[in-house]
Amino acid sequence: MAPDVVVIGGGPAGAISSALLARAGARVRLLERDFFPRYHIGESISSSCRAIIDLVGAREKIESRGYQVKEGLLLRWGAERDWTINWPDLFGDQVRSWQVDRADFDDVLLKNAAEQGVEVLQGAQVKKVLFDGDRAMGVEWTHDGRPRESPADFVVDASGRAGVLSSQHFRNRRPHDVFRNVAIWGYYRGGALLPRTPRGGINVISALNGWYWVIPLSGDVYSVGFVTHQDHFLARRPEFSSRKAMFLALVAESETVAELVSGGHFEGEARVERDFSYSADSFCGPGYLIAGDSACFLDPLLSTGVHLAMYSGMLAAASILSTHAGEVTEREALGFYESHYRNAYGRMFSMVAGFYEQYRGKNSYFWLAQRLARGQYPELMRKRGGDSPAPSDGAFASITSGLTDLDDATRVGGAAPLDAMVLASELVAGKADGRTARTDAGDAAGLYLVTEPRLGIGKAVEPVAPR
Questions:
Q1: pLDDT tens track for 415-432
Q2: DSSP labels for 309-337?
Q3: Which of 384, 194, 215 is nearest to 306 (CA)?
Q4: Do residues 222 and 214 touch, judged by C-beta distance below 8 A?
Q5: How far apart are CA 201 and CA 215, in angstroms?
Q6: 3-class SS at 433?
Q7: Which one-letter DSSP state was computed for residue 58?
Q8: What's the pLDDT at 215?
Q9: What are phi and psi of 209, to 5 degrees?
């Protein structure tokens, strides 16, 4: 019989996991508390997301929306001159993504999940996950004011920052003190990007007390934001009569950003959101997997949020399907999920922590990326031609585009114990506490992600020791 799965949350993690499960024959009920489309920040999408969108059969739907194509990024950081990461130049013409309207993008993915056979219920509020001992057995929820229960073989908690399991049930989220940041942002009609920016690329521009983003969206709209530590934000806030006044003043304080938006005009309101980074002590357990922002959240510096959400959604679906099919034990599947998702988060955490030490030159970031990638580059890197050496920015581009994570998951022995939090602690001179727990990757030894002829977890004939 097909497994019964309840997915909490209809964002990218929930939409991807539920669609993949339904495509494989699982009976899936998705419970979303809001009504889509709904506004969400996080418009810049990693290249890895295209491959995952392919798996759920949504590529044509996404490409038909007319989003701005994104082919990389340009950073003006610290004392460095501009440095460009151009994905097509590094990996080939097919490596690109989009700058999206998240309200529309998320709505497309959720509707696609419904088309794959997922029962999608919006306006459904999950009250709690039901347990028998330490095993998740279903959820208690309300819809139209009526209390209900849904039994399940597996629960995927993709409830975002609400964190039905990690924040409300286990209460085991741990904040990373070094990233207690606040973002303030808005939208301009008209603008420009820095010279040498790859087509549709994001500009990331450092400042004395934080950093700015400039993202080109479709329709000549530019998303512009500033991220700073909460202490700096709270100290400056009384200077201004409104959020809008504060935002416009902050834009004016950056000569670079002010010049980029000088040909446009501000529209709408200024928005503010806390970007406090955190991770849960555990990302899974008997009968449940915690995906996307519900498990962990990272400062948006490298635009990795949607990648981590989709990647974890894909891993969760594969883990459930292979456990139910008896291809791996549940313990093995949970070890596979935990190690791969936590490794992905740890790599990104270490890169972002490095960037916050602004005095470091770009070569130090590239060195760190090579160390985090353990010398392993995706096949796309090797297709650059011949035996020419990989460029110094290759590992950095591979990690920040999400391609290293995809390569790790699909390669036998790809997941390894990665002490990324220790690396991050070294970089920020002890400012990060490094308390995040890690699952022993021994449970994942010899396991790898397979997508053909169907999604699941492969198992090496001979066990492969983690690298």
A1: 554 444 444 444 343 333
A2: HHHHHHHHHHHHHHHHTTSS-HHHHHHHH
A3: 215
A4: yes
A5: 7
A6: coil
A7: -
A8: 98
A9: -115, 25
